[in-house]
Amino acid sequence: MRVAFVCGRFPTQAETPTLNIATGLLQRGQDVQVFAGGPQPGVPAHPDFERFSLAERTHYRPQIDRRIGARLALAAKGLRAHPGAERRVLLRALNPLRFWWRATSLEVFHDARMVLPHGPFDVAYCAFGVDGKRAARMWRSGALRVPLLTSFRGSDLLVYPRHGGPNYYSVLFGCGSLFLPVCRAFVPHLVAQGCPPEKIRVHPTGIDLSRHPFAPRPAPAAGETLQVCSVARLIESKGIQVALRAVRRLLDGGLDVQYTVAGNGLYRPALEQEIDRLQLRAHVTLAGSLPQQGVITLLQRSHMMLAPSFRGPKGAAEGIPNVLKEAMALGVPVIASQLEGIPELVVHDVTGLLVPPGDDEALAAAIQGLLRAPARWPDLIDGGRRIVESDYDINVLNDRLMGMFEEVVKRKE
């Protein structure tokens, strides 16, 4: 089967789930071609990008030229280079009545020119909702007239439609074949935005369990410093500032704690200020972005992993943070916010602990409570590993995705 894989940045350091899907399809003998906006700048590619020779399969859309004359020349050159049916596709891509400014900017034209030489395809997979919108424009131009499957992971469902209006995904919902929210909590949001319920299949993001060996983390010994960590993009809704206030409470209560945060983002300066305000310089490390193995090493040396997300002012929230699955697979206890899809993975007192979003007092109390009850650790840790094995194994999920590909292709026939 020939698969068009549509995404934004590729490869990226943080979004290994997207990479795992692409490599999983290749391992299953599929011919995958990736169509992306560009690579993530300034970070090394994941080793699997080279191991699977993905550079040869990844195609980037050219940058949009602001000069009208240059755009006209590019359009004319492109039309001359593509005769017959392909030229008709490109002419549709230039139609402003159909695509408005995305036609006049040559965005749709460039996407069509990028895809056409590598087709035809049997199916297209879109990593995020916004990638689905882009693929829908390719579909409407005729460059990618295949069944479209689109995943929804968080902000693409909860934030972008707030700015784009109630019909933000209406075109995609009309031409797409299946829509794959990463958690059950997202289903009502999709339906409310107009997605036909019969086109929805919950399809979680998985992890490669072979890279996350289970080694249950023991509770810290008497007098040992408590090591806690978070792994997240540094944006407000990830709740790192909530964890900082919880750390301050723990220190004020006489507990020796070190908190390491892996990740980067625009909210880092605000967190630096909060660290100074709370006088936490000796107890908090902002480690920046780490490669996957660096994240695994950080988790393995931590006693607990925190995911204190909350709903941001613009509606930002996440489905189920993948790093929670990684920590639980490794045998690290997790404490997370009771928000959106997180309770589907973190079942309170069974696979981890849940706290109200934004509540630093409750977060500190949960950490203290777990420390005072080391006998609870084995059951929580075992429960965490079991749920990841049963529901979030990337190999099982990639097999399931292949089944959905076969379903929509057969339906088209």
Question: How would you characterize this protein structure?
Answer:
With 413 residues, the protein is of the alpha/beta class. It has helices spanning 16-27, 47-51, 68-81, 84-93, 96-99, 101-104, 107-115, 129-141, 155-158, 160-164, 170-175, 187-192, 240-252, 268-277, 292-300, 322-330, 342-345, 360-371, 377-391, 394-412; strands at residues 2-6, 31-36, 58-60, 123-126, 148-152, 178-181, 226-231, 257-262, 284-288, 304-307, 334-337, 353-355. Helix 16 packs across helix 19. It is elongated, with a radius of gyration of 23 Å. The chain starts with a strand and ends with a helix.
- Helix/strand-derived category reads alpha/beta
Side-by-side strand order of the widest sheet: 3-2-1-4-5-6
Strand content: 5-15%
Contiguous low-pLDDT stretches (5 residues minimum) are none
Write the layout of secondary structure elements.
Blueprint: E1 2-6, H1 16-27, E2 31-36, H2 47-51, E3 58-60, H3 68-81, H4 84-93, H5 96-99, H6 101-104, H7 107-115, E4 123-126, H8 129-141, E5 148-152, H9 155-158, H10 160-164, H11 170-175, E6 178-181, H12 187-192, E7 226-231, H13 240-252, E8 257-262, H14 268-277, E9 284-288, H15 292-300, E10 304-307, H16 322-330, E11 334-337, H17 342-345, E12 353-355, H18 360-371, H19 377-391, H20 394-412
Parallel strand pairs: 1-2, 1-4, 2-3, 4-5, 5-6, 7-8, 7-10, 8-9, 10-11, 11-12
Helix pairs in contact: 1-20, 4-7, 4-8, 13-18, 16-19
Features:
20 helices, 13% strand, elongated, 12 strands, 44% helix, 6-stranded parallel sheet, 413 residues, alpha/beta, single chain
